[in-house]
User: Which sequence fits this backbone?
């Protein structure tokens, strides 16, 4: 049995009468990364900051490493690393001075130079923070969050604004920590980030967890999509198991749970009629589809 | 919960050091800190006879209070509002320092600077012809206690201060109340000072400094008032303080 690092049960957080988190459950085991997804305003940051102990829960229970972050915040902080969605460092301090300050604000401080090296900031070490680019500052923020290799790591949109290369680098660093046993709770708007890093995913929708599970569980039952364009004057399509609709422009969109069979039927039919299917694409069910469904259910409910 | 261990001490000192570095890098603040005491000493020493029987003690008392209001009260309100606006405070709260240590480390350089400025300006006043203070230990107590009271008041004032710029406005009321109270207090001899005069926040700082310099009068009521106001402002600040701009 794996030990749970984070346990959230029936969490509720409100700002005045606006309920931002409304009865959410969540667990993260040691050595596991869970991604929390959701549209803008879904309540991800609120949920994270409450689990970190920065906000008070209005109801429900939160345990991090067996402690209550609301009451035992200070005891917990030494074992937890935090990267806020938005946060600040004094612009007049250099990158190294900032990392060195933070090293002395942690008991297991680690090595400021090593952590800058790890996030490819070594060459910016003597530059004032205010002169760093947005992405560099984000990496400095992550460097500080992982100082001393915390047991639990909270990352609120860690790669927003990063170039693709820095994003991969960040994934490597975070992945390495998870391998060493760190429990990570991460939010992101990049679905491929969740796919690449998370062993489990939770989708938050208006303060409630609308979906949860492994990637495979989430996309199970989600149809694959075949998209193509028909030449002008083509005969009627053969019978397919797919649901056929029209997409953008001249696209024909066929959603199917039997992509292999439908594709064969379609291609045989095209050959027989000597047709060329322009821009033919096949895509497996993806997290994006799950996301769209949640958003769609939201519209229907509203 | 508020464990005081080696890391808390060294962490607070590291934070204070980096804040001092920031003060130093902000040329305007550094220049003001260096120039304010001699300028004020010069200005006030010219008017040393205009405070009636208060003599030099009254001059020094008013000078120290004005300096603390500028260099600690207004400066601390501005600094904390600025750091909160930049989300530096919110970030620091995720460190392992207890909340009081984060704020303490941030404000310590201002307090230290104020003590140095006060000593400098006291030396200047002497250089301009004043006698030596009768009870220097009380003078130090007035400066230190006054600085702590100003810190507590500043933390409370940040509650209604949305930005660093706003601090200029939000610190105004206490600024004038304190100065008015002090002028009222030192306008009478020390043995005629009433409890009401001393109860005006800030005036006890000036009165304690006057007693320290002139030697006459009972310092205990003034000390008690400084302690009371520090405790009241500190307790209120503890309850009302905000760590980030959004509620
Ligand atoms: N301090 C606050 N005061 C009032 N309302 C707030 C506050 N913080 C957040 N909210 C509201 O609570 C809801 C959830 O906000 P939250 O920041 O948790 O969303 P999020 O999922 O992190 O969004 P994003 O993807 O944009 O970061 C939003 O409707 C937001 O307007
Ligand atoms: Mg957010």
Assistant:
């Amino acid at each position: 049995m794996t030990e749970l690092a984070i346990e959230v049960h029936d969490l509720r957080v409100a700002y005045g009468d606006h309920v931002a988190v409304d009865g959410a459950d969540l667990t993260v085991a040691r050595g596991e990364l869970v991604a929390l997804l959701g549209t803008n305003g879904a309540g991800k940051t609120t949920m994270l900051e409450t689990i970190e102990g920065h906000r008070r829960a209005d109801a429900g229970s939160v345990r991090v490493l067996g402690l209550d972050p609301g009451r035992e915040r200070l005891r917990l902080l030494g074992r937890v690393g935090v990267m806020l969605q938005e946060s600040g460092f004094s612009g007049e301090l250099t990158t190294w001075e900032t990392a060195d300050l933070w090293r002395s604000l942690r008991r297991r401080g680690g090595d400021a130079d090593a952590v800058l090296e790890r996030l490819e900031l070594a060459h910016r070490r003597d530059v004032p923070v205010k002169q760093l680019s947005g992405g560099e500052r984000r990496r400095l923020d992550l460097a500080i969050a992982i100082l001393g290799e915390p047991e639990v790591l909270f990352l609120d949109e860690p790669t927003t604004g990063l170039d693709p290369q820095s994003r991969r680098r960040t994934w490597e660093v975070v992945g390495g920590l998870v391998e060493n046993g760190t429990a990570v709770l991460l939010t992101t708007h990049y679905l491929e980030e969740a796919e690449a890093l998370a062993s489990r995913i939770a989708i938050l929708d208006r303060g409630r967890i609308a979906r949860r599970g492994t990637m495979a569980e989430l996309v199970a039952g989600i149809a694959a999509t075949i998209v193509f364009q028909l030449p002008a004057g083509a005969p009627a399509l053969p019978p397919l198991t797919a649901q056929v609709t029209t997409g953008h422009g001249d696209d024909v969109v066929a959603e199917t749970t039997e992509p292999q069979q439908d594709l064969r039927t379609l291609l045989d039919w095209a050959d027989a009629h000597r047709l060329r299917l322009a821009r033919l694409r096949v895509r497996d069910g993806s997290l994006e589809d799950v996301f769209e469904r949640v958003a769609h259910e939201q519209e229907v409910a509203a | 919960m508020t464990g005081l261990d080696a890391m808390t001490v060294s962490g607070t000192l590291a934070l204070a050091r980096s804040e001092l570095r920031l003060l130093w890098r902000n040329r305007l603040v550094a220049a003001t800190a260096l120039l304010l005491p001699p300028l004020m000493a010069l200005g006030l020493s010219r008017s040393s006879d205009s405070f009636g029987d208060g003599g030099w003690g009254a001059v020094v008392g008013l000078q120290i209070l004005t300096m603390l209001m500028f260099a600690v009260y207004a400066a601390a309100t501005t600094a904390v509002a600025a750091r909160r606006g930049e989300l530096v405070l919110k970030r620091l709260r995720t460190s392992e320092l207890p909340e009081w240590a984060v704020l303490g480390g941030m404000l310590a350089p201002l307090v230290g600077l104020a003590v140095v400025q006060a000593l400098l300006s006291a030396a200047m006043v002497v250089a301009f012809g004043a006698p030596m203070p009768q009870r220097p230990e009380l003078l130090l107590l007035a400066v230190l206690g006054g600085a702590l009271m100003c810190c507590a008041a500043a933390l409370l004032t940040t509650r209604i201060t949305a930005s660093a710029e706003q601090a200029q406005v939000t610190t105004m009321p206490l600024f004038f109340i304190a100065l008015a109270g002090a002028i009222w207090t030192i306008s009478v001899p020390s043995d005629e000072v009433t409890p009401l005069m001393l109860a005006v926040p800030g005036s006890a700082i000036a009165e304690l400094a006057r007693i320290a310099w002139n030697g006459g009068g009972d310092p205990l009521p003034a000390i008690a008032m400084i302690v009371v106001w520090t405790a009241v402002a500190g307790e209120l600040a503890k309850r009302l303080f905000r760590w980030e701009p959004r509620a």
User: Anything to note?
Assistant: The radius of gyration of chain B is 18 Å. Chain B touches chain A through 28 residues (CB under 8 Å). Residues A 44-45, 85, 156 surround magnesium ion (ligand 2) (CB under 6 Å).
